[in-house]
From TrEMBL:
Annotated Low complexity bias: 17-26
Organism per entry: Chryseobacterium turcicum
Key words, A-Z: Coiled coil
Keyword Acyltransferase attributed: no
Coiled coil: 530-557
Compositionally biased intervals (Acidic residues): 27-38
Protein name: DUF349 domain-containing protein
Pfam family membership, one: DUF349
């Protein structure tokens, strides 16, 4: 058997053979045409995700079988989520300071922060576990590859006579190709060592023409298959798919199609290289399609920015209704902006900054409007306090002719006065209503037996009915309905032939409640009859029963989770819902107690 010792001095000193030369050529070509990993995260698409979608994608990665090895993708999503939370906290900070508050007093915990922290913690554990297993696997692969190199070395130095060299080298090359990854720090030396001994093998094999021709023939067939598949990729509709598979074909060429006889060496390589270049030229198709789509996205996002800008700069003096409608519209536009795809990279930052700036400008203008209302609301409060004092001064008066007209005027003036600070709304309304109720209850008690008073009652009710008919769904309509219903209940009987007005009033009331999307039980009512109080108590009991059933259902659902604590970020919203329902339940029970106790 020919061994390394049988080679002539010239053969031992000749330069690297075709194996190393061609490998270097392929490596240079792959470096110039390096493809993206198809599993790598697409930064542009992730950048356009909403915070909720980014958290969902992170959760999907954590629950995937290969979670630990998807570090790059998870990290990009984590940065996106952190960026979104930071932006939203900054928005809250701007709103806080725009409201005239000191920055050092600002405190806000984003509702998604705990969930993000939990996802990061879980992923870190899975990634650490993956790295530990990978290190162990790489160590096994290193030992395996070193044993393959030893077998390759023995193949050309110590092979026994009769060994089928062609079969043996094929098995070694296939086993090397299928061996797993090793650490990056070990790969270069290991790879160079392998190709060194492979080169030595082929130098030895050069002295055995029969074996060498078999190897050349086999590798040429491999090259022809690779070239044929590369030609098919020229017509592959999906450009990125073609580029990814071409990268795999170059890997096969390097690992399984070397060497071939000199007459085919350059010819086959040039043919493969020419096809590769044509496929790489198709990148322009992919780039053109992406550019067209990104330009369309940019135009759409700029239109959204323009619309928000117009909303933040109204031509006419805006009122409360305008700003409430604008707030809803801006929220829709914000969602639409985030769902719209990527824009050209060089314009991405400017486009995003323009969007954030115009959102802040809108919020600042809106906040300034509501800040300006505080002065007028204080003035309205002062005017209503004067009405309350007048009502209290006259609530025991029995000068019916003058006092009835006075209280009617007081109620009309109350409706005309605008909003007061929200913290005072219920308090002053209760005071004013109590004073009015005291007067009308006294009036009803002293004059209910008089037929003339019945006629006056009819006139008052008719006026209230006409007033109720004029109410629409404008701001303050609910308060007006409450005032009208309270006044209606405080008016005594009407003549028998005029009792149809009660049915007409109830029908009109239901229509107005439906128009304003409120439940009749939500209205504040006083002066109800015994039957009316009983009916109201029955309805509240029904609501209490429904709420208790909903709370039990939600608490039962928590039992399905392994960790049903409040610290679990996935269950925080559920606990908040239960707390809200329990608070509502306590309010209903309190109201029921007041009715039963006659308070």
């Amino acid at each position: 058997m020919t061994t390394e010792n049988n080679l002539s001095e010239n053969e031992e000193q000749k330069p690297s053979t075709e194996v190393q030369e061609t490998v270097e050529t392929i490596e240079n070509t792959e470096e110039n045409h390096q493809e993206e990993d198809p599993d790598a995260p697409h930064h542009d698409s992730i950048a356009d995700l909403s915070l909720a979608d980014a958290l969902k994608e992170m959760e999907k990665i954590i629950n995937s079988p290969n979670a630990g090895e998807r570090f790059r993708e998870f990290n990009v999503l984590k940065e996106k989520a952190n960026h979104s939370i930071h932006d939203e906290v900054e928005d809250k900070k701007h709103e806080y300071t725009d409201g005239g508050n000191a920055l050092e007093n600002f405190s806000y915990e984003h509702p998604s922060q705990s969930k993000l922290s939990g996802l990061i913690h879980i992923f870190r554990e899975k990634h650490d576990y993956f790295q530990k297993n990978q290190e162990e696997e790489q160590k096994k692969n290193l030992d395996h590859r070193q044993s393959i190199i030893e077998r390759l070395k023995n193949l050309y130095t110590n092979s026994e006579p009769g060994v089928n060299l062609f079969k043996s080298i094929r098995e070694i090359k296939e086993e090397w190709s299928n061996s797993g990854q090793v650490a990056k720090s070990e790969f270069k030396i290991l790879n160079n060592n392998y190709f060194h001994h492979l080169n030595q093998f082929y130098q030895m094999l050069d002295l055995n023409k029969e074996f060498l021709e078999q190897e050349y023939s086999h590798n040429l067939e491999k090259r022809q298959h690779i070239i044929a598949r590369a030609k098919e990729l020229e017509n592959e509709p999906a450009v990125q798919k073609a580029l990814n598979e071409l990268q795999y074909l170059h890997k096969l060429w390097k690992e399984e199609a070397e060497p071939v006889s000199e007459e085919f060496r350059e010819k086959t390589w040039e043919e493969f290289k020419e096809i590769s270049n044509k496929i790489h030229e198709r990148k322009t198709e992919l780039s053109a399609a992406i550019e067209t789509e990104q330009n369309a996205n940019l135009e759409k996002k700029n239109e959204i920015i323009t619309e928000i800008k117009n909303l933040s700069e109204p031509k006419d003096s805006p009122n409360h209704t305008y700003w409430q409608n604008s707030i809803k519209r801006v929220e829709d536009l914000r969602s639409e902006f985030l769902k719209t795809g990527s824009v050209p990279r060089k314009l991405s930052n400017n486009n995003w900054n323009d969007f954030k700036s115009i959102l802040r400008a809108f919020n600042t203008t809106k906040n300034n409007y509501y800040k300006s209302l505080k002065g007028s609301q204080q003035q309205n409060l002062d005017e209503k306090m004067k009405l309350i004092q007048t009502a209290k001064d006259n609530m025991l008066s029995e000068d019916w002719e003058l006092a009835v007209a006075l209280f009617k005027k007081l109620q009309e003036d109350w409706k005309k006065i605008g909003h007061v600070p929200k913290s005072m709304t219920n308090k002053i309304w209760d005071e004013f209503r109590d004073a009015c109720n005291t007067f009308f209850n006294n009036y009803r008690e002293k004059s209910s037996a008089s037929t003339d008073n019945w006629k006056e009652n009819y006139k008052l009710k008719k006026d209230l009915l006409e007033e109720l008919k004029t109410i629409s769904d404008e701001e303050g309509s609910i308060e007006k309905i409450e005032a009208i219903k309270s006044s209606w209940n405080n008016i005594g009987k009407v003549p028998r032939d005029k009792m149809a007005i009660n049915s007409e009033f109830n029908k009109t009331l239901r229509e107005k409640l439906k128009l304003n999307k409120i439940n009749e039980l939500e209205l504040k009512e006083d002066g109800l009859s015994e039957n009316q109080l009983t009916d109201k108590a029955r309805k509240i009991k029904s609501q209490i029963s429904d709420l208790e059933a909903e709370i039990v259902k939600l608490e039962n659902n928590l039992a399905f989770f392994k960790n049903p604590s409040r610290e679990n970020p996935l269950l925080r919203d559920t606990y908040n819902t239960i707390d809200d329902k329990k608070a509502h339940l306590e309010t209903l029970k309190h109201n029921l107690h007041n009715i039963i106790a006659g308070e």
